Amino acid sequence: MTSPADQLAARVAEHMFAREGLAPALGVEIEEVREGYARLAMTVRPDMTNGHGIVHGGMVFSLADCAFAYACNSRNVATVAQAASIVFLSAAEAGERLTCDAVERALEGRSGVYEMTVRSGKRVVAVFQGQSRALGKPVIPTGEA
Amino acid sequence: MTSPADQLAARVAEHMFAREGLAPALGVEIEEVREGYARLAMTVRPDMTNGHGIVHGGMVFSLADCAFAYACNSRNVATVAQAASIVFLSAAEAGERLTCDAVERALEGRSGVYEMTVRSGKRVVAVFQGQSRALGKPVIPTGEA
Amino acid sequence: MTSPADQLAARVAEHMFAREGLAPALGVEIEEVREGYARLAMTVRPDMTNGHGIVHGGMVFSLADCAFAYACNSRNVATVAQAASIVFLSAAEAGERLTCDAVERALEGRSGVYEMTVRSGKRVVAVFQGQSRALGKPVIPTGEA
Amino acid sequence: MTSPADQLAARVAEHMFAREGLAPALGVEIEEVREGYARLAMTVRPDMTNGHGIVHGGMVFSLADCAFAYACNSRNVATVAQAASIVFLSAAEAGERLTCDAVERALEGRSGVYEMTVRSGKRVVAVFQGQSRALGKPVIPTGEA
User: Fold this and answer.
1) How far apart are CA D28 and CA D56, in angstroms?
2) C-chain residues within 8 Å CB-CB of B131?
3) What is the SS3 assignment for B58?
4) Burial label, A1 (beta-carbon count in 10 A; 0-12, 13-18, 19+)
């Protein structure tokens, strides 16, 4: 049984995904969204590589940033990224399927901290720390949520 | 008159751009590359927006990461991003033309720090700090550079 | 029963603490050290405050950086901090007792990522992400460990 | 001739320094403060070292964080650090004199980005990027500034 909070999180992610340009353009798939949590996947395409022939840091960041957005908006409070830091730990090539888990680490007032881990299988590709700020309005207008 | 070091930087950027999937896919234009410096531009497309209707953080990061790569590889020493942090200061909408300056701030041994500033006109959209690590081999094979 | 790996972690932390200037000077107490994990505590003193009368960011960072060091050296492989990012979520006043948990999040080759959380009671004061690099030599010379 | 804006910046720094616990405790010296800029110095003491016998990352961060505070409060608008990232590029030993320049890189609304560079002579020890948020009240009460 899915809790009402987790059902809301899934509806918010669907609502955002439908209005978003980037995630569909990158072929991002939503594997799971719960309150304060999201798990996405994306397969590295040739147009996502850098001049060294491996996945571009910007694409790893983008996957993690998508997961961050679904996790930090999951309570239907519109929330934006204020800042982020990312550490690149291993490379990935075109054809590899990347997954990203987004986990809420702290929430104090309007500010939150989330940790995203991008993996290819068990290998960690990058760890991303995101700082969020809630705007105070709903993502899905009241009455529709 | 362009110095030999700046000419090499421009050739390395062309070499990387020709082998790269992401920068051409995003419509990134190289405006200027010098030793330890790069300036790129990119126009925000609808497929670069997030669920709030503004440019996705991943796309702002990607533009800055491209500029970072050209600046930190500019001496024809293959160099990769190890980590990065980004602060988002203002939003940008589809149709806006973003520019990014990449400036070398410090270089000690194999490690470097670069600062990228993404702007829409004079407005600062984001500031990105990148940490690089030199691999020690050339980008353009010796004899061709 | 403490595992041999956790016993080693505790011995390494004692070894480092005995040679360290800062942690004793700040009154840092080691509450627990295990393989890949450390928990420290420190009480905010008046000489740790900033011009706004609250704990200085440098002192919050220092506590977390100490915990990071014990966690990333816990396998008796000398390891240094390469970079770190910190998000400040709430303030703390002189007299408050801060705790910090350091948790290993990823380890690939010589690089690691650790997450430190500084709390005053249940309130999160800061979240710190640290990037480590192993130097390959032991902390406690072989034969003594 | 010092401009009124730079005179105000110097008065704000003196006001903060006089109320601050940490900077005097660390022996920090204010070398210069102007609008959006500060330059400090500090000599590494034995009680500022880590278990590897070199300056503790927390002390390098603290020096940079002090410089950040004077630079971002320089217009007499109370401003706090929200987040920071630091890259460590070289070590320093007890007895070395460190300097730190704090430079304003961007200011949009209540948010700012500052870059601090810690050096020992010409060698760069660390680069620190700070994210600030203005609180909207003066540092020195109106009528006294």
Assistant:
1) 16
2) 82-83
3) helix
4) exposed
Residue given tokens 């405006």 in the structure block: B31
Domain locations in chain C as residue ranges: 4-134
Architecture of the CATH domain D4-134: Roll (3.10)
Which residues, in sequence order, are bridge partners of residue B103? B37, B115
Q: What is the DSSP string of A60-89?
A: HHHHHHHHHHHHHTTTS--EEEEEEEEEE-
- Nearest partner of C69 among C108, C97, C28, judged by Cα: C28
Distance CA(C92)–CA(C54), nearest Å, equals 6
**Span A82-139, pLDDT tens digits:** 999 999 999 999 999 999 999 999 999 999 999 999 999 999 999 999 999 999 899 9
ipTM of the complex as predicted: 0.95
Those residues of chain A whose CB sits closer than 8 Å to some CB in chain D are 82-83, 85, 111, 131
Beta-carbon count within 10 A of C138 CB:
16
Strand (E) positions, chain A?
29-34, 37-43, 79-88, 97-108, 111-120, 123-134
Strands (DSSP E) found in D1-145: 29-34, 37-43, 79-88, 97-108, 111-120, 123-134
Question: What are the backbone angles phi and psi of residue A110, rounded to the nearest 5°?
Answer: -85, -5
Rg (CA), chain D: 15
Residue of B82, B113, B129 for testing the chain C interface, max C β-carbons within 10 Å: B82
The number of angstroms, rounded, from the C-alpha of D79 to the middle of its chain's C-alpha atoms is: 13
Beta pairing partners, B129:
B85, B115
Instruction: Give the pair of three-digit tokens for residue A135.
Output: 């705007």
In angstroms, the CA C42 to CA C44 distance is: 6
- Average pLDDT of span D42-71: 95
Instruction: Indicate if the pLDDT at residue C55 is higher than 80.
Output: yes
Check: CB of residue C74 under 8 Å from CB of residue C39.
Answer: no
Residue D36: strand, helix, or coil: coil
Inspect the interface and report whether the beta carbons of D129 and B83 lie closer than 8 Å: no
pLDDT tens for D75-100 read 999 999 999 999 999 999 999 999 99
Contact C51 D69 (CB under 8 A): yes
